[in-house]
């Protein structure tokens, strides 16, 4: 199967329900039409949290998919209140300050995925990671207004 990751701004601007529906529709399309069976999710921001919740719901209809939590810090495990099938802590994220650890986690995610569901309402750090993913040949599916410029 193939893999999809979620990368986006920490904050959600606008209608959360509308964004949740877009996540659900996009992920379901990838499952049914692109053979995606693994979803890489994090817990760093509101977009990642919403994506994780949507994937839990989708997994009820598609029990064959796998939700993999990818963390930047070991202490992130203390905050996890969601269901996941597997967890990965990139070893290169272990050493360094906060920004370094998140950067190394995101680099690992980009290397592992085929698709990225992106949410970029402004050109921040997540936007730059989506551009990096595109340069590496990953398919970016944008849900935010800035994703058109990637």
Give the helix/strand layout.
Blueprint lengths: L1 E7 L7 H19 L1 E6 L4 H16 L4 E5 L15 E3 L9 H15 L2 E5 L5 H11 L3 E4 L8
Helix pairs in contact: 1-2, 3-4
Detailed description of the structure:
This protein has 150 residues and is α/β, with parallel strands linked by helices. Helices cover 41% and strands 20% of the residues. It is built from four helices and six strands; from the N terminus they run βαβαββαβαβ. The protein has helices spanning 16-34, 46-61, 98-112, 125-135, and strands at 2-8, 36-41, 66-70, 86-88, 115-119, 139-142. Strands 4-3-2-1-5-6 form a six-stranded parallel beta sheet, with helices on both faces. α4 links the parallel β5 (115-119) and β6. α1 (16-34) crosses α2 and α3 (98-112) runs parallel beside α4 (125-135). It is globular and about 40 Å long. The two termini are 26 Å apart. The model has no long low-confidence stretch (mean pLDDT 90).
Compact summary:
With 150 residues, the protein is of the alpha/beta class. Helix content is 41%, strand content 20%. Helix 1 crosses helix 2 and helix 3 packs parallel to helix 4.
Q: Features of this protein?
A:
150 residues; alpha/beta; six-stranded parallel β-sheet; 20% strand
Strand content: 15-25%
User: Given the C-alpha coordinates, what overall shape results?
Assistant: globular
Which class best fits the helix and strand makeup? alpha/beta
Helix and strand pattern: EHEHEEHEHE
Strand order of the largest sheet: 4-3-2-1-5-6
The radius of gyration over CA amounts to 14 Å
Question: What is the tally of beta strands?
Answer: 6
Name the helicity range.
40-55%
| Unreliable stretches covering 5 or more consecutive residues | none
Largest sheet: 6 strands, parallel
Alpha-carbon distance between the termini? 26 Å
- Whole-number mean pLDDT: 90
- Helix segment count? 4
């Amino acid at each position: 199967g193939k893999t999809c990751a979620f990368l986006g701004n920490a904050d959600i601007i606008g209608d959360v329900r509308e964004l949740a529906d877009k996540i659900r529709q996009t992920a379901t399309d990838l499952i049914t039409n692109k053979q995606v069976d693994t979803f890489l999710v994090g817990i760093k921001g509101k977009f990642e949290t919403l994506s994780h919740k949507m994937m839990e719901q989708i997994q009820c209809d598609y029990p064959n998919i796998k939700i993999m939590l990818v963390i930047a810090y070991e202490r992130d495990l203390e905050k996890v209140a969601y269901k996941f099938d597997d967890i990965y802590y990139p070893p290169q994220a272990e050493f360094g300050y906060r920004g370094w650890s998140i950067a190394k986690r995101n680099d690992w995610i980009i290397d592992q995925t085929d698709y990225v569901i992106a949410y970029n309402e402004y050109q921040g750090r997540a936007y730059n990671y989506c551009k990096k993913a595109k340069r590496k040949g990953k398919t970016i599916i944008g849900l935010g207004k800035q994703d058109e410029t990637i």
